[in-house]
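User: Structure please.
Assistant: Input sequence and predicted structure:
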Amino acid sequence: MNLSRIPLRVLLTGSAALLALGLAAWQLGRLVVGPAMSSASPVAIAPDLDSPSSTNGPLPATKSPGALSGTSLAALEAALRASQEDADPIHRDAALDALARGLAPGDLAGALDWMAHRTNSPAVQGLKSRLLHRWTQLDPRAAAQWVSQLPADADRKAALADLTVVWAGTDLSGATAWVQQLPEVSERDAALLNMAYEAARTQPAAAIKMASELPAGSGRNDLLVHAVSQWAAQAPAAAAEWAGQVVDPVQRERLLGAVAVAWGSADPLAAGTFAVTTMTAGRNQDDAVVGIVQRWAQTEPAQAAAWVLQFPAGPLQNAALQNLVQLWTDQDPAQAGDWLKGLSPSPGRDRAIEAFATKLVPTFPQSAAQWAQTITDETARLRELEAVGEGWMASDPTAARAWITEAPLTEPVKARLLALAPSR
């Protein structure tokens, strides 16, 4: 958590808990919560114990487990209890962050060993995760040795996930080499999966290579989709070439769709052309095209609309038009309406007008009703008029009843709408 973004008023709440935390940490001789505050750093802590330039000198060697003194353990327990008693989750998280950072590097192993025997409350779990995160940043191999000695239970599983994700973010090759020597296959695979997701943020090609070491299944498939999506955001042509070579046709279509959607954020026309010309017609292609249109509509709705109108009439064009108009109406309903006026009667136009009218109902119900009556398909028109009546009754029942009485609806539908209780 970035303490600089926590409002001062939040940090000053729960003063009793914070005072207890500060006193306990003072006994540890590592953490200082003082009055020196600024807009950039609301809480002043001790010098950075992880920095070689700290006034505390070189980093002390990590102590062996259980090396904390009785006084230090008592102070840590008091500080942890104070954070547990704080009802404000933001303030409690800030206190745990400060406590974890305030411990000397040499005390991390002892603190973690002590907490391994504590009841696993949210505060204990949160502090253990923070301490292991910090230890891994300082000395990943020592932290890994500590984790490897934990019994095979939920705590070990959580600790292994924390360790490998943090380690992968700083030294992917070192973390991978350590994980590959784990004797338990399921544990090794889970760690590789976690690390690959972390690696995908900055090294997506490496994450894809790591996926090849995992057993076939949904976990590996989902990882590949995520990694190729990250890759396509950086190098769409390379990602597309790799995805096109995947042998499994079902997985290949998923990967191509992920490439197209990620590519659409930077170059929607190229991405759309790729999706239409490369992918096989079906659900994956439809989802990719709609995803591209959704992103395109947020910046250039008119250009996206012109592209969609080039599609052959059918379900894909209908879905794309519906999503396009929904987003366009949120941005500029007048402009979207002007564009709709230029469309020739078609199923796609009807779907677009349905989307437009639905968006207008909450604020412009009378206009929504007028637009709904221009839908050419009778079934779709009656369905949308009924939906307009329901929405109008919720916002202005008096005006809605007057409209419903004269609307081109069946008598049973009118009776149902007129009987609706207005929302409060």
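Residues 378-395 form the longest helix (18 residues).
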